[in-house]
Amino acid sequence: MATVYHINKGINKPIEFKGLKAQYIVYLGIGLVFLLLLFAILYILKVHLALCIAIVGLLCMALITMVYRLSREFGQYGILKFIAKRKIPQFLSSSSRNVFLQLKSKGGENG
Questions:
Q1: Per the domain annotation, does 2 fall within a domain?
Q2: Does residue 7 lie within any of the structural domains?
Q3: What separation, in Å, do the N-terminal and C-terminal C-alpha atoms of the chain show?
Q4: How far apart are CA 95 and CA 99, in angstroms?
Q5: Is-contact 53 60, C-beta < 8 A?
Q6: How far apart are CA 25 and CA 52, in angstroms?
Q7: Owning domain of residue 98
Q8: Is residue 9 a part of any domain in this protein?
């Protein structure tokens, strides 16, 4: 009897849920948990219920809009590349030439 193997066509593709890719799903989840805690804190502090719902609702819409915009703009790894690119210095400064002279002399011995 022949064995039937099912091929997973999604291998090496980013996880995607309703347009959100990869780590943005986690960002949205963390944000929604934070908003749930904010609602609970406001409710415990006796803030009027309509005001609690309005504040959390507006923040939720802002969160969802921001996360979808980041996902669409940067893609799966784009935001990590963007952060890494900002950490690259514009120029290097040195008060002495000795570092570069030592590099040149070491390169000459090996080559």
A1: no
A2: no
A3: 64
A4: 10
A5: no
A6: 25
A7: 16-110
A8: no
Token couple for 50: 């309509």
> By three-state DSSP, how is residue 25 classified?
helix
In-domain check, residue 1: no
How far is Cα 108 from Cα 111, in angstroms, rounded to an integer?
A: 5
Nearest to 68 by CA among 14, 32, 28, 15: 28
> Residue 101 to residues 93, 94, 106, 110: CA-CA distances in angstroms?
15, 12, 9, 15
**pLDDT tens digit string along 25-75?**
888 999 999 999 999 999 999 999 999 999 999 999 999 999 988 888 887
Task: Give the amino acid at 44.
Answer: I
How many structural domains are present in the chain?
Answer: 1
Residue that has been written with the tokens 């309005």 in this structure? 54
Secondary structure (H, E, C), 55-103: HHHHHHHHHHHHHHHHHHHHCCCHHHHHHHHHCCCCCCCCCCCHHHHHH
